[in-house]
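Apologies for my clumsy wording, but could you write out the amino acids of a protein and the C-alpha cells describing how it folds?
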Amino acid sequence: MKAPNEVVTKALLRQVNVPGLDRPAALITLDNGFDHTKPNTFGPGGLASLDEAITAALAADPAFIAVTGKPYIFCVGADIVGLPQLADREQALEIGRLGHRVFARLKDSTVPTFAFVNGAAMGGGLELALHCHYRTLSGGAAALALPEVSLGLVPGWGGTQLLPNLIGIPAATQVIIQNPLMQNKMLKPKQAAELGIADVLLEPADFLERSLEWAAGVVRGQVTVTRPEVDKDMWAGVLYFARETLNQRLHGAVPAAYKALDLLETAKDADFATGTAAEDEALADLVFSEELRSGLYAFDLVQRRAKRPAGAPDKGLARTITKVGIVGAGLMASQLALLFARRLQVPVVMTDLDQSRVDKGVGYVHTQIEKAVTKGRMDKGTAAKLYGLVSGSVDKAAFTDADFVIEAVFEDLGVKKQVWAELEKIVSPEAVLATNTSSLSITEMAAELEHPERVVGFHFFNPVAVLPLLEIVRGERTDDATLATAFAVGKQLKKSSVLVKDAPAFVVNRLLTRFLGTVFAAVDAGTPLDVANSALDPLGLPMRPLALLQLVGPAVAYHVGGTLHAAYPDRFSVSENLKRIADSGQPIVVDDQVNDEVAALLVVGDQPLTAEQVRQNALDALAQEIRLMLDEGVVAEAQDIDLCMLLGAGWPFHLGGVTPYLDRTGTSERVTGRRFLPRGAASLPA
C-alpha cells in the first residue's frame, strides 16, 4: 500500500552476529533512499514495509530485534504531506489504526525489542521508539520531539499513552504540549536521557556498535534496566494546572492542545487499546480542521521556503568573511558578537565610545560563554576559542581588516549616517556594511557614501539567540555581491533570511506597529486597557498586546510609530498616551494584569469599543497593511509575510502566520476584495 506522492521509507532487515549471543540479532534500518536532508517518514507504504520486516525478523527467531535509521536520521514521523490527500474521516481512522497495529508488534513482542535512536526522532518516529522495550540514544541526535500540537495534531501513534507512563505526567505534558507551543522546542539528547525517554546515552562515533553490545548485555542479563515508578497521585493536579495555563494563554484557540490534554488524562487508567483508540478518534477529528491546514502550511514555509529565500542572488557572488566588526557594545551588540563568533568562528571586535562600555560588552559575551559551559552546552575547548575570538576597542581602526561590519547603535538616522561616514574611511571598499536598524531607510543611510552599494539591512529580532528571523533589506543601490554575502552570512548564523524591500519598518515591525496602533487607538478612544488587552485572545497569540508592547519597550514602539506616521500619516497615528507610558518608566502589565498606576496616567475619550470591535479593527488593519505591502513589493509573496510573522513575531502555526487566518475569517475579501492565498493552500478546499 502506498499513498499518492509518498516517498516510501523502507525497512531493511539484516541479520547481525553479536559477540556473546548464540544466534544473530535482527537489525531493521529505516531508509527512504535519500541523504539526511530528506528525512525518513512513515506513510502507508512505509508502515507496510516495517510490518513486513518485523514479520521476517520474528520468523528468523533472533536474539533480539532492533530498529535504527539511516545516517543522522532515525525517523521524523508521519508523512504529513499526505494528510491533506485523505478523502474522509474513515481514511484518517485507517492510517491511525495502521500505525498503531504495526508499532504494537514491537511492544507486544516476546522477543526483546530495541530502538537504536541514531539521529533525529520526531513525532511518529519517537513514538516508534517508545513502543520498543528498550532505547539507546546517540549524543549526536539533532532533534527529539513530539511536535504534533504545533501543527494542529496530537501524537497519534501511541505517544500520549506511552510517554506519560514512562517518564511521568509532568515531563510528558512538557514534551507533548508545552514544548510544541514554545516555538516547537526540541529536546537535546542529554535532556531526553535525563527525562527517561532513553535508557542509555552513547557517543555518536561508534553508536551502532555500542548499542549492539549494550543490547546483548540486556539479553544476557548482564545489564539491568531500572526505571522509576510513575507517580499517578499527581496526575489530575498536573493536568488541571496545564488546562488552566492553556486557557490563560490560548483561550481555546488551539483545539489540538486540548485534545492532547484529554488523551493524557485517558492514559492514567485506561488500557492501551482504549487509549490508542481515543488517539485514532482525535486524529480523525483534527485532520479535517482549518488549524491543521494552517499548521501544515506554516510547517512548509519554515522547512522549505525559509531554506530557499525568494529573490536571493546567486550564492556564488558571496564574499568570504574572515573578520567581523560590531559598532556598539550594548546588549544587542553583545548578543550579535557572541552569535557571530559561535557561528562564523572568526575574530569579532566590538567598539564603543569609552572603555567601560567596551569592557561591559566583552564581559557580557564572556559571561554567556561561561554559562554555556556550566550548563553543559559548550565544551571548555570551544569556550577557550571563543574567548580568544571576541575582543573590544575604543578605536574604530580595529575594523581596518574586517570584511563585514554591522552597527547596532541608537536608532537615529543622523547617528547611523555619521557612523558609516567614519567607517568608510577605515574599511576596505569591498567590506560589507550592515545595519541592524528596525525601521530606518537603508537607502538614505547610504546616500552620501562613496560606496553605497555595499550597505545592506541586517535586521535581527530580540532575543537574537532565540528568534530565527533575519530581515535582509536591499537598498536602492545595494549590489548583488553585497546581498549574496548577507544571505551567506545569514545562513552561517543559522537564521532564516527573508529578502525585504527598503520600506519603512520593513515587515514585522510595520505590521506589529499597525496592529498595536489600532489597539492603542481604541484605548485613546476610551476603551479600558484590560478590554483592549484581552480583545485578541480568541486568536491564541503568544502575547497579549500590552505584554508585547512591554517587551518591545514603549519608547521604542513610540519611536517606530513616529517613523511610520511620517511615512504613512493616514494609517499610523502617534498616541500621546503611549508617550505618557514611555515617559513614566513603569510597566504596563504586572503578572498579566494591567498596572492601575499606568492606567491612571492616560487621557482618554468617551467612545469606548467592545472587545469584538477592537479585534475586528485590528484584523482589518492587518489585512489592509498586508495588501499594501504586497502591492508595494516589500516582499515577493504573502508567504513571506507569514514566514516573517512566524519566525520574527512568534505568531503561532495554527494561524499559519497571519494571512491564512485573515482569509479563513473572510477579513481579506471584505477589506481588500480578494484572498491572500488560493483556497486550499492553507485551508480546507471549498
The chain has three domains: 10-288, 316-499, 508-633.
